[in-house]
Amino acid sequence: MTYADITHRDPNPIKRFLQRSRLIHAVRMAWGRPAPRTILDFGAGDGELCKHLRSAFPRSRILCYEPAPQLLAQARENLRASEGIKLLSHLKEIAPGSIDLVFSLEVFEHLPPVETAAALDSIAGLLPEDGHVIIGVPVEVGIPALYKGVFRIMRRHGEFDATLKNVLACTVGRPPLARPVSAIAGGMNYHSHHVGFDHRRFRSALSERFDVEAAVAAPLPQLGPALNPEIYFLAGRPRCQAT
After folding, report:
1. Residue, of 235 and 239, whose pLDDT is higher
2. Which architecture does CATH list for 4-142+195-236?
3. Where are the beta strands (DSSP E) in the chain?
4. Whole-model pTM?
């Protein structure tokens, strides 16, 4: 099963719609600003977002970074017909302060605290003083946790993200802190399930390193994160870390 099979080509039409709309909403967060010279998709999966970036920013240089070899191979195949997109397996190939705009979707909900801090620090190091990052994460607390939980229970009852206990805990705003951890991409710790992720805690971690300029829920922004399944953060001006 490929990344596309569980995202933008999922058999469920609602999930396909939501997965595709998240790409559109993320790109919209960058509208109204000068066209970036260089854009990085940080944790690109199969590279589907890069197709949208190529269309939205035809004059920009697009970098597709994916550290997991199996996903990078899928991105290479998916982007075979797309021009002007460079695939990368290591951030060391990118000069510090050389990226005007970073996108990162479907990444941080999978990272434990240590890896989250390291990833945010890496992004901060890649941005110049006027650079920005757009990060999309799921809403896994409150009402969204309830309807997502019901969907997951119907698909795979009994898994960590598909038990009544964990679904109810997330619904009342107290997601489980102990989450299963596996390894991906050279031993990096990784959470395979979304359950346990809290976008509120993530925003606090993001605010320690960046100024969060906007937070927009999707696909219906007017309903906010109380009802929407996703939220997108636009952040800029990385703050200097104390020495």
Report:
1. 235
2. 3-Layer(aba) Sandwich (3.40)
3. 38-42, 61-65, 85-88, 101-105, 132-138, 182-184, 188-190, 211-218, 230-236
4. 0.92
